[in-house]
Amino acid sequence: MQTTVPTPGAPELRAAVTTGAPLRAGGSITRNPRNEGEPGFRVLGLLQVHGREPVVVTARRQQVVLALLLLNGNRVVPLEVLLDALWGAAPPATARAQVQTCVSALRRALAKAGLGERISARGSGYCLDLAPGELDLHAFEALVARGRAARRPEEARAAFREALALWRGEPLTGIDSGVVRAHQVRIAQRRVEVLEDCLDAELELGLHREVVGEISVLTEEYPLRERFVLQLMTALHRCGRRVEALAAYRAVRRRFVDELGLEPGAALRELHQDILAGSSEAPAAGWAPPRMLPARLPYFTGQERLLAGLRRGLTDDGPGAAVVTVLSGRGGVGKSAVAAEAAHRAAPAFPDGVLYARLADEDAAGVLARFLHALGVPATEIPDELDGRAALYRTVLAGRRVLTVLEDAANLSRVTPFVADARGCRLLVTTHARVAARPGVTVAELDVLDGAEGVELLSALVGEDRVSAELSDAVELVELCGGLPLAVTGAATHVAARPGRTLAQAVARLRAGDDRLGRLGAGVRDAVGRGLGELPPPARDLFARLALLPAGSWPGWSATALADLGPAEAADALEALVDARLVDVAGSRYRLPSLTRLLALELLAAQPLPARAAASRRLFGAWLHLADQARGVAVEGVARTPVPAGPGDPRTWYDREHTGLLAAVRQAADAGEPRYCAELALAVADLAGERGWYADWRESGETALRAVVPAGDRRAEAALERSLGELAVRESRFADAAGRITRALTAGEQAGGLSWDELVRQVLAGVGRARAVAADPVPLAPPSGVPSIGNRTASPRITLGRNQFDLAADRAQPEGAARSTGRAGHRRLPRPRPISWRRESDYPEEA
Asked: What's the rounded Cα separation, in Å, for the pair 423 and 400?
């Protein structure tokens, strides 16, 4: 039993799946105060409960109820199951009341023994809460899982023997119930299986003399279990008792033929022939052929097309069939789970064995030694050096059909010693690295789950009923997890362990605060940031600064601006992030996965504020540099950042990049850069205005205006108000246009030194004419020399001050020099009486 459920692919999860231990469902649990290391609840023998004092349960009904609650610890036992266990198909009329009485008595007994409130009513059933290690059956399963996951036989033997030592007799001895007896049979069968595993480990350690007597007794008790007979023949042969080994085979063969009409299995027959032939060494263990795969995940969902393709590739014996299949993907995407499932599905096609190892935890030489030993090579014949072991491995595989699964290879060079020329052998590799397909190597990329697959996984972990009741919250929960199976499993584990928690609460929990990665589970942050620590400092710095970019895809030149490196060095840093799977490639653009972006934000917050601000200004300057090229103008103002990439076709540049440019306007406003914000907004006005994309124009202008007004930048305010005034004219919002142009004139005069007041007056006159045209459908010709407001090509100079504020000349003047009083050929006119500052709604004729 475990307090937290690991994620798919982790070794801890495989152990949890193998044990079948339930999740803790919550509730108030008081640990056994008598002995922390000894289970307080015991079912592997007589039913016993120990707290500060033993809990005496003698009544049959209480024994049956307590046994079923313990066997289903932390899971709800429906009332119908309890009724069936107590009375079968004919419960009395008072059955429900009697069960309630039993539960009440058990609660009092447990509380009196200092074990707290353990039994709770949930729905139409009852649940007994257990902490890790409190039930001897759970402790047994955890030790068995540890033994089966052990890499050395001595570790496996120690875990198995410790697990078997928990048994005190037949499980739940003396409890009279058909339902409980079914559990007794199942649990007893588990003990026999563990005995077989333990004896295999002891034979592998050369303890044949110590275990031969025990195996002899077991073969008498279980005469039809071939594995015990195989172990007995092996032990007898190694002890030099060849005749007795052959006699054991004859006895079991006679029993099989007489009672079943069958011959013994292939393993027994082969061992019999080896002994007859005088083989000096019988198989080191009874695990021939080896089956080393971890247990299958009971809740595996999705990826059916990929699994079908992997199975076909692994079992294909046709010409050109790939010997190596590589499953690649970022950390937490479920490579281990998919590889294990694919190997289990393909295993029947490999009768000579399935080998498994994690290269991240063990070197190639050690793995080869284990594989050779599992394939029957005595330890004394295994070479010491890597090349010798690899050569012997290839020799042993010749003529066999063996599937080898290697997890977590840093790169393909790590798996070279395991590639064999044997026609029937295949190698399945998982790796975090990007691998290119080549002759003999098939590469499959594993991506995150889509919405439907994520909800399916969530349903498998927390229950279909809970997900169906809150389907929209389930979809959002998967989105907050970025579709990463590891993260979805972490979130589902949190919900499953708390039956009273809704999916909506889980969504709110992930939204709250700034530590979503931490809330998803300890392993998610490590998986998302895997490989980051191995990158050079420039790549790590760039990764953090990529968080300054908005969510979604972005062009590669953004990295050049953010990194403050030369174009070649910035490109190398970006490619290093791509190779480390921290950045995804989306066509000709790039993107940060959602959870990876959260990690980048955490690292960005740790960078000095001046460095962050400088990176933001370089990014805004790069946008302006490209926008200037797209507009075909050279604007002086805030610093531009030259980038190697040009806008391409200027006519379509804004169509491709308008989302990023608008985001840069908002980002500049949030970053406290009003001058950059204003110039970016005016660039948007130019480019969006040419296309009639007035929503972009309005959003950017209003965003920038909100940034420059508090900053007191009257020049920028004048330019933005004038730009928004032109937009209002185009949209026939004449009252708004008049107000904005008037405010532009006022702000310009307050800024001082502006030389475009006459043109603004012309714009005001144009507003009046446009209003008259709106009231009278007969078009009026504009006065001579005044540009037409309705003609974009006749009045491009209305944009004066929008693109560049018309401030270049003012900036060029020495400090304190007299500013210009008007354009060449114009005299500065007195300011006309301002238009009323009424709101647009105050003009009834335009409503």
From this structure: 8
Q: Is the pLDDT of residue 670 over 50?
A: yes
Q: How much is the pLDDT for 845?
A: 34
Quote the CA–CA distance of 486 and 483 in Å, as a whole number: 9
H/E element holding 554?
strand 553-554
Model-level pTM?
0.56
**Strand-pair category, 125-128 with 403-409:** unpaired
Angle at 191 between CA 190 and CA 195, to 5 degrees: 120
Q: Which residues, at least 6 apart from 515, have a Cβ–Cβ distance to it below 8 Å?
A: none
Over residues 30-48, the mean pLDDT reads: 68
**Considering the chain, what is the average pLDDT of its residues?**
79
Distance, CA of 797 to CA of 793 (rounded, Å): 9
Please report which helix (H) or strand (E) contains residue 140, including its range.
helix 136-149
Distance CA 603, CA 544 (A): 5
Cα-based angle 319, 320, 322 (whole degrees, multiple of 5): 125
Amino acid residing at 165? A
Q: How far apart are CA 543 and CA 574, in angstroms?
A: 8
CB 322 within 8 A of CB 441: yes
Say how far apart CA 135 and CA 21 lie, in whole Å: 10
Angle at 486 between CA 483 and CA 490, to 5 degrees: 105
SS3 state at 643? coil
pLDDT at 269 over 90: no
Distance CA 387, CA 567 (A): 43
**Residues whose CB is less than 8 angstroms from the CB of residue 426 and which lie 6 or more positions away in sequence, other chains included:** 314, 315, 323, 324, 325, 346, 350, 403, 404
Cα–Cα separations (whole angstroms), residue 512 to 467, 516, 517, 587: 21, 8, 12, 34
DSSP assignment, residue 644? S
Cα distance between residue 127 and residue 640, in whole Å: 67
Residue with tokens 């006022």: 746
What is d(CA 316, CA 841) in angstroms, rounded to the nearest whole number? 75
**Are the CB atoms for 310 and 325 separated by under 8 Å?**
yes
Residue 73 has what pLDDT? 85
Residues 638, 639, 640, 641, Cα dihedral to 10°: -140
How far is the C-alpha of 820 from the C-alpha of 829, rounded, in Å?
A: 13
**Running DSSP on this structure, what letter comes out for residue 133?**
T
Of the CA atoms within 13 Å of residue 164, those in its CB half-sphere come to 17
Write out the two tokens for 821: 């009083």
704 close to 624: Cβ distance less than 8 angstroms: no
Residues whose CB falls within 8 Å of the CB of residue 538, separated by 6 or more in sequence, listed in order = 563, 565, 569, 572, 573
Beta carbons of 406 and 357 less than 8 angstroms apart: yes
Angle at 15 between CA 13 and CA 20, to 5 degrees: 95
For residues 349 and 546, give the distance between their C-alpha atoms in angstroms, rounded to a whole number: 47
677: which 2 tokens?
Answer: 């914000």
Taking residue 373's Cβ as centre, other Cβ atoms within 10 Å add up to: 18
Torsion of CA 393, 394, 395, 399, to 10 degrees: 120
Whether the CB-CB separation of 428 and 453 falls below 8 Å is answered with no
User: Is the predicted pLDDT of residue 333 greater than 90, yes or no?
Assistant: no
pLDDT at 7: 33
Q: What is the maximum alpha-carbon separation in the chain?
A: 125
Q: 249 Cβ partners below 8 Å, 6+ apart?
A: 229, 233, 264, 268, 271, 272, 275
Distance (Å, whole) CA 722 – CA 43 = 84
Cα–Cα distances in angstroms (integers) from residue 14 to residues 52, 475, 570, in the given order: 35, 27, 42
DSSP letter, residue 72: T
| Strands of the 403-409 sheet, one edge to the other | 354-358, 403-409, 426-431, 324-328, 441-445
- 374-417 confidence digits (pLDDT tens): 888 887 888 989 999 999 999 888 878 899 999 988 888 888 89
Instruction: Name the packing angle between helices 335-346 and 304-315 (round to 10°).
Output: 50
Query: Cβ–Cβ contacts within 10 Å for residue 829, how many?
Result: 10
